[in-house]
Automatic annotation (TrEMBL):
GO terms, molecular function: CoA-transferase activity
Annotated keywords: Transferase
Protein name: CoA transferase
Superkingdom as given in the UniProt entry: Bacteria
Amino acid sequence: MSTVIAAPFGATLLGDFGAEVIKIELPGKGDPLRGLGPFSDSEPLRWPGLSRNKKSLTLDLRKEEGKEIFKKLVSKSDVVIENFRTGTLEKWGIGYEEIKKWDPDIILTRVTGYGQTGPYADKAGFGTPATAFSGFTYLHGYPDRPPISPSFSLTDYITGIYVAFSTMVALYHRDTTEEGSGQYIDVSLYESVFRMLEFLIADYDQNDIVKERTPGLSGHSAPAGTFKTKDDNWIVLVTSSDRTFERLAQAMNREDLLTDERYSTNVERLSRFEETNKIIADWIQMFNRDDLQSLLDEYGVPVSPIFSIKDIFEDEQYKQRENIIEVNHPRLGKLKMPGIVPKFSDTPGSIKNVGPDLGEHNEGILESLLSYNREDIRRLKKNGII
């Protein structure tokens, strides 16, 4: 019972690998994600992929009979995933302390902007503000321009991975240890990104350095960054170790850089970051993109063209890895969406259905799973419960 991206994406990842996922949505309204672009005419294009492998049940959790249906669902479930404002479930009388009475083994995964505790626990939580709060946004952009937020909902998707990961850890603990039982998981948007910034923490703690924003990679290794080729294509190149730089110098036929004390170690190259990058940039300007790629691949130097989505659609690596798959959509016909990752040797995932229509599975869930009859279902619909 969650909306938009972070928590729903975590549930989708679980669904990709076989979890039976029932998505609870408010009758007549549904998940706001259904109204987010892009669109084809009036058909939302994000919904089918982000909500695939789910069943849609409309249910008003604010009403007593809706809570009763929810109680029956919990008693037959392993996991509940929610992302309401802190305290909302408790206000409705269906918080963790209540639902564990119905099923002591239930896992409740809770997603908020700032966590269930702390002075910011009650703040509205959305991905872009949480990204700024995490310290991530401060690092990105040009020094003489405003900081830049990611151009898509990066933090929400990262948090979704934490949702799936932490849920599986809780299930594993419950099902494989003698003392295992249900528990709740407190996932926050900002912490999901902050956890990835250990270099930032260590540098400030030990060196009192506040890393300022830069337009590319800096502060870790040199050379590194974005470079333009002779045929006006952009590529990214990094040398994250001295051994990698050694291979680059060999590819450039500039082995003198390996004996020059100014460039022979990463510490020295970092102290001359702009100077080192310029040497590489001038050399890269001598090559067309494909020729450069072939040469650096031969020497084992990490480099990649900066792909547009058009480039991705045409690339053989994406095709052979089935990173883009085609599915059937009831109104759009054939529709492409991301494939399933990661790849499992024995238990690969599958796409059973695209994002469902609102309430598409009401009758099936209520009849087969919860033993309601047709008359019950008609009454529930008439009373706005479903």
